[in-house]
């Protein structure tokens, strides 16, 4: 079996802040413009895709983030196996979306690293490197933002109050993780 | 031994907490809460530094950020040293060491003081005049001038302090926590607006907090007591954040402001460790309330710069706030009532006030009456014509003014002894931040002030920064403005009863007359830069009219204090001399920062490993373990070469490239951009994007494509593979990936919305190991035994889906080296183990990891271009001798039209060629110019070398170059002129190795 190895070297824990990678998580980008696409996704996943900008919807096994008017990221709510990179959800969507020309399905499981960050200082940490205004964001569960943190593109999903999942491209993740650890040490 | 001039207790000074510090090597002590200035004054030290040009002794003039004179070097001769720190802002702490600047050997005896006697030779613009005559002496002058220029010393070691940045978003930002700022912050926060209140001092309250006059009351309470209650209430208000020791440095458009928060500068040395020293706040505010107050003006008269000459407001603050007497024989010199208020305060504390010199003929307010009742001698309609005392003032000479204030009523002179002269010239609203934001000022004739007029964003100015100097006006006008601005009906302050003296008449004479001719006097306007009134008048005589020109010629307002004290006087003197109105003259431009920022604050944590963002490939750890040297490619850290033992880069590259050609090499190609393209119009999309045709590319096949800009110039290149009927994966250059995706998405959204195509970046999803060389097939076969690698099933430029130990991957048989090659693309988190497995499988074939340098050499041998190295946005495909890739049949593609412009079709454009040197071991320098006739002057440059290497596989030096008309110059001899010799080269075909492609099809 090929060894599964991520870019993140350990968790970061402070009394009021914790940064932890959650892995492996299946991540798909799904894209489509038509009502038929939305309907087909609904039928296949048994969930409704969010159509309001910067929001998310969740079902038992999956969560979908609105990324643009015709683009969503779909992630598994639980970790998947390290021993395979075949996902039943992807196969179903390829069969029922891509193959029937309704839209596009792209596996981006390793394109992004998912970091779970929780604690009372989550947003203090972001304030040291992100120009985004989190004042409203931190009061709304389920909200999503695509912004930059220390010049790096990130997607942030507000999972619970004072708990977010942050998605960063794998190649930037080591730098961002190190930067966040450094910043968190001085909050 | 110095005297102790701490004459009274103050609640702002903790006399139970004694703080020792050093100034100019000598130990002193002050108390917690003292600034360096107040502590020095308490020790009877006025002489703090020397002036910039004339090295005149200078003392402490103010009590705030406007200080022009008392600037010191802190922590000299250490990595933590900092020049130009204002003693009036620096809070003392245990272990502080400060020294005077701009003096040698000491502030008491400064050799540079000779400049004061040479001042007739150093008029305004003397530096510019050295350029004029005699012209050839300029370099000699410059040597001397450069050596004497500058204030303080920069640190020579890296700054060990830690700095940080923080973004803040608020509904209302209030700048300045004086009485009007506090009222504004309370009102905003109590109306459910998220409010941030900033003040540069360590305590809030401004000057009202130490106001103790019986004549100034709010609701029958002393104004300071009333304000103290208000401050106590602020602590319980939600939505309100207060930051002290925080100075707003810049006010940009759309209410974006930068502020510096000082966090540890006031702490003892042992408490500073590992804490953030200063934080740059990046503030976005929906609304901004500027309550920055006003600055007291000095008066301009002969020798107005001696140590012991201070602003009247500063003398009052040192007494009332710090409990320090700035002198024991004080004299006030004024043109308005505020000096009386200060004098009364001092006299009541038992600090002797000898006299008040008032240039006004009369004044009859509560303050003037009280001063006289206290027995203070008042000289009305008098002015100071001279001061004496080299290192500290000890005497003034006064004369009675004429009615017009331009000469004297009688020749009689009166001499008065003093050790402190407090001067009060009126007030200037601190409109710096308002104008930085783009605000327009208007001039108020009555009291000669510029005040805010047109606001460029959602902001207001209130309080004395808006020109309301009397408490009654200040409170009432602030309430009115706040109600309108915040759209509210009432405030907590609507029914305040305010008592304060009114009718503070001011008599403004910008340059007070002297009994000597102007040329024999030194009436300083800009203290820090030693610019005098006569300098300004000289500039006007020499033809300068614009205030901006006079500023630059005389350096008025160009010091670290940006002329906060003297600019208005400069304007007044110009206006009077030139016979224009001050309002028409306007002000000089106020630029950020309001007060100087350290470089550390600007940079924040973007230092060391965080100086730049970096990207790592999935195999990065293996490269580090195997001692790879890295190079920066875009933001990526790419393995450059893998030196063994003491190998140089040249040695390593020669070894790696031989191994790749003779047996097997492996390259980490994960950095190439990868774009997943799906949709029913994907083929048509590629037809429009690339110069060649894509409709007929079979599923499972790969094709190289060139992408042009709209101008027909090569933009990017790469191999695109058809994975399925409507599914492609495009590769781009490493550095171009993000721009290509952005450009393509832009085209889809704006130019071709009719196309059903979706793009997703998968650059980071895949790790790519590229195996090349004659044994690459055998290695892949060991890795995936069940994959049919025959040429029939898996020919060059095709792809296969495969699995390695249950993990799906894609394998492309494509080559950037000219060798038989495979690129294995696997999900990134399996990338490192895939690499290790490739190394294990290739061990028997001496598989050799190679880096980007060897990759460049191998591709150059084959004449393959690198976009960005062999091209520079001026090269068409035809220039690159790649005519074959431009479809003549396609209706259109990006850049097609531009390829048929007369300029792009010219025969003598620079074209890609190969070069070989006559001396086969001589490797050309990349970027070297190429010429045909070395004797021609000026020499005609035909082109330049773009890539150059020594090829171990060809045993000779090879190079790629762009040469004007090079396509038709095969075999022609040219020259590369170098500093010490000319190198003879010959133009050859750019493909040096295996032109028939035997090896990659093998």
Helix content of chain A: 10-25%
Quote the average pLDDT of chain A. Answer: 96
User: Biggest interface and which pair forms it?
Assistant: A-B, 53 and 53 residues
What is the C-level CATH assignment of the largest domain in chain A? Answer: Alpha Beta
Task: Please provide a written account of the structure.
- Chain A is 23% helix and 33% strand.
- By secondary structure, chain A is α+β, with helices and mostly antiparallel strands.
- Chain A has 2 domains: 11-24 and 110-187, 2-Layer Sandwich (Gyrase A, domain 2), CATH 3.30.1360.120; 27-108, Alpha-Beta Plaits (2-Layer Sandwich), CATH 3.30.70.
- In chain A, α1 runs antiparallel to α2.
- The termini of chain A are far apart.
- Chain B is of the alpha+beta class and 1002 residues long.
- Among the domains of chain B are: 1-156, Ubiquitin-like (UB roll) (Roll); 165-291 and 470-499, FAD/NAD(P)-binding domain, CATH 3.50.50.60; 516-604, Arc Repressor Mutant, subunit A (Orthogonal Bundle), CATH 1.10.10.1100; 669-770 and 778-819, Gyrase A, domain 2; 906-988, Elongation Factor Tu (Ef-tu), domain 3 (Beta Barrel).
- In chain B, strands 8, 9, 12, 13, 14, 15 and 28 form a 7-stranded mixed β-sheet that branches.
- In chain B, β36 (702-708) and β37 (714-724) form a beta hairpin.
- Chain B is elongated.
- The chains are: A alpha+beta (187), B alpha+beta (1002).
- Chains A and B meet through β7 and α4 of A and β8, β15, β39 and α22 of B.
């Amino acid at each position: 079996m090929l060894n599964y190895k991520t870019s993140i070297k350990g968790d970061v824990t402070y009394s009021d802040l914790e940064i932890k990678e959650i892995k492996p998580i299946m991540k798909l980008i799904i894209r489509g413009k038509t009502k038929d696409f939305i309907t087909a996704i609904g039928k296949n996943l048994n969930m409704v895709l969010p159509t309001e900008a910067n929001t998310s919807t969740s079902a038992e096994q999956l969560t979908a983030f609105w990324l643009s008017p015709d683009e969503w990221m779909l992630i598994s709510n639980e970790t998947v196996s390290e021993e395979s990179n075949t996902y039943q959800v992807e196969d179903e969507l390829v069969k029922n979306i891509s193959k029937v020309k309704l839209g596009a399905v792209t596996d981006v499981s390793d394109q992004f690293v998912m970091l779970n960050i929780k604690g009372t200082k989550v947003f203090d940490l972001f304030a040291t490197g992100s120009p985004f205004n989190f004042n409203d964001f931190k009061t709304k569960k389920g909200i999503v933002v695509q912004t930059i943190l220390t010049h790096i593109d990130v997607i942030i999903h507000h999972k619970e109050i004072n708990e977010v999942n942050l998605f960063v491209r794998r190649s930037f993740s080591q730098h961002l993780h190190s930067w966040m650890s450094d910043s968190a040490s001085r909050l | 031994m110095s005297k102790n001039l701490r004459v009274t207790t103050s609640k702002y000074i903790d006399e139970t907490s004694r703080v020792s510090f050093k100034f100019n090597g000598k130990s002193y002590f002050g108390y917690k809460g003292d600034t360096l200035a107040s502590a020095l004054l308490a020790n009877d030290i006025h002489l703090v530094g020397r002036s910039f040009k004339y090295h005149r002794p200078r003392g402490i003039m103010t009590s705030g950020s406007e200080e022009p004179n008392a600037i010191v070097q802190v922590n000299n001769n250490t990595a933590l040293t900092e020049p130009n720190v204002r003693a009036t802002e620096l809070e003392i702490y245990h272990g502080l060491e400060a020294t005077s600047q701009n003096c040698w050997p000491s502030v008491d005896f400064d050799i540079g003081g000779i400049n004061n006697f040479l001042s007739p030779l150093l008029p305004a613009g003397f530096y510019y005049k050295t350029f004029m005559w005699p012209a050839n002496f300029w370099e000699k002058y410059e040597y001397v001038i450069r050596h004497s220029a500058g204030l303080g010393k920069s640190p020579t070691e890296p700054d060990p302090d830690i700095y940080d940045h923080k973004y803040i978003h608020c509904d209302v930002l209030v700048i300045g926590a004086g009485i009007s700022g506090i009222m504004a912050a309370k009102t905003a926060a109590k109306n459910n607006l998220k409010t941030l209140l900033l003040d540069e001092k360590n305590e809030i309250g401004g000057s009202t907090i130490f106001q103790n006059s019986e004549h100034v009351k709010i609701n029958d309470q002393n104004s300071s007591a009333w304000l103290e209650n208000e401050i106590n209430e602020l602590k319980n208000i939600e939505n309100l954040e207060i930051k002290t020791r925080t100075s707003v440095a810049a006010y940009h458009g759309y209410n974006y402001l930068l502020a510096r928060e000082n966090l540890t500068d006031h702490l003892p040395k042992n408490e500073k460790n590992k804490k953030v020293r200063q934080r740059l706040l990046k503030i976005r505010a929906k609304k901004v309330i500027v309550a920055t107050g006003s600055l007291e003006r000095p008066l301009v008269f002969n020798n107005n710069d001696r140590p012991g000459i201070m602003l009247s407001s500063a003398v009052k603050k040192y007494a009332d706030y710090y409990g320090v007497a700035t002198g024991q024989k004080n004299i006030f010199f004024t043109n308005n009532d505020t000096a009386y208020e200060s004098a009364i305060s001092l006299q009541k504390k038992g600090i002797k006030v000898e006299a008040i010199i008032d240039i006004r003929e009369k004044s009859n307010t509560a303050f003037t009456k009280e001063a006289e009742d206290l027995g203070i001698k008042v000289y009305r309609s008098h002015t100071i014509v001279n001061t004496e005392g080299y290192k500290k003032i000890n005497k003034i000479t006064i004369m009675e003014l004429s009615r017009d204030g331009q000469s004297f009523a009688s020749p009689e002179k009166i001499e008065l002894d003093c050790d402190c002269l407090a001067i009060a010239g009126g007030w200037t609203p601190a409109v710096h931040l308002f104008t930085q934001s783009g605000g327009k000022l208007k001039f108020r004739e009555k009291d000669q002030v510029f005040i805010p007029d047109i606001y460029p964003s959602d902001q207001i100015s209130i309080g004395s920064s808006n020109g309301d100097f009397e408490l009654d006006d200040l409170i009432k006008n602030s309430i009115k403005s706040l109600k309108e601005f915040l759209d509210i009906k009432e405030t907590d302050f609507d029914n305040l009863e305010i008592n304060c003296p009114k009718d503070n008449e001011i008599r403004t004479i910008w340059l007070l007359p002297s009994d000597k001719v102007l040329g024999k006097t030194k009436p300083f306007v800009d203290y820090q830069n030693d610019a005098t009134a006569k300098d300004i008048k000289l500039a006007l005589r020499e033809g300068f009219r614009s205030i901006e020109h006079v500023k630059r010629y005389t350096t008025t307002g160009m010091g670290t204090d940006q002329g906060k004290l003297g600019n208005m006087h400069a304007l007044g003197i110009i206006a009077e001399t030139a016979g224009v109105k001050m309002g028409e003259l306007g002000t000089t431009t106020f630029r950020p920062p309001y007060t100087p920022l350290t470089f550390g604050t600007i940079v924040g944590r973007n230092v060391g490993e965080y100086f730049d963002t970096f990207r790592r490939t999935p195999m990065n750890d293996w490269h580090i373990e195997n001692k790879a040297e890295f190079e920066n490619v875009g933001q990526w850290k790419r393995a450059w070469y893998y030196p063994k033992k003491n190998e140089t880069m040249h040695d390593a590259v020669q070894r790696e490239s031989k191994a790749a050609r003779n047996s097997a090499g492996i390259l980490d190609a994960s950095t190439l951009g990868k774009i997943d393209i799906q949709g029913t119009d994907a083929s048509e999309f590629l037809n429009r994007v690339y110069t060649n045709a894509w409709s007929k590319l079979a599923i499972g096949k790969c094709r190289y494509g060139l992408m042009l800009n709209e101008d027909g110039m090569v933009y990017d290149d790469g191999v695109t593979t058809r994975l399925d009927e409507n599914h492609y994966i495009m590769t781009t250059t490493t550095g171009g990936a993000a721009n290509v995706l952005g450009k393509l998405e832009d085209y889809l959204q704006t130019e071709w919305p009719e196309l059903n195509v979706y793009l997703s970046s998968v650059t980071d999803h895949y790790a790519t190991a590229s195996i090349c060389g004659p044994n690459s097939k055998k290695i892949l076969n060991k890795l995936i035994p069940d994959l049919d690698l025959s040429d029939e099933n898996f020919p060059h430029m095709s792809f296969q889906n495969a699995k390695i130990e249950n993990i799906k991957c894609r394998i492309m048989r494509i080559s950037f080296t000219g060798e038989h090659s495979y690129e294995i693309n696997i999900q990134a988190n399996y990338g490192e183990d895939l690499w290790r497995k490739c190394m294990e499988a290739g061990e028997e074939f001496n598989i050799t990891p190679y880096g980007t340098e060897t990759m460049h050499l191998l591709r150059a041998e084959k004449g393959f271009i690198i976009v960005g190295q062999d091209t520079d946005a001026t090269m068409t495909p035809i220039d690159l001798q790649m005519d074959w890739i431009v479809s003549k049949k396609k209706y259109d593609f990006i850049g097609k039209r531009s390829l048929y412009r007369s300029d792009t079709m010219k025969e003598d454009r620079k074209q890609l060629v190969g070069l070989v040197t006559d001396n086969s071991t001589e490797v050309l320098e990349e970027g070297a110019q190429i010429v045909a006739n070395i004797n021609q002057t000026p020499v005609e440059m035909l082109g330049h070398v773009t890539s150059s290497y020594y090829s171990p596989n060809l045993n000779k030096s090879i190079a790629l170059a762009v040469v004007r008309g090079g396509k038709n110059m095969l075999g022609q001899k040219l020259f590369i002129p170098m500093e010490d010799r000319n190198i003879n080269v010959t133009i050859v075909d750019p493909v040096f190795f295996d032109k028939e492609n035997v090896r990659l099809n093998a």
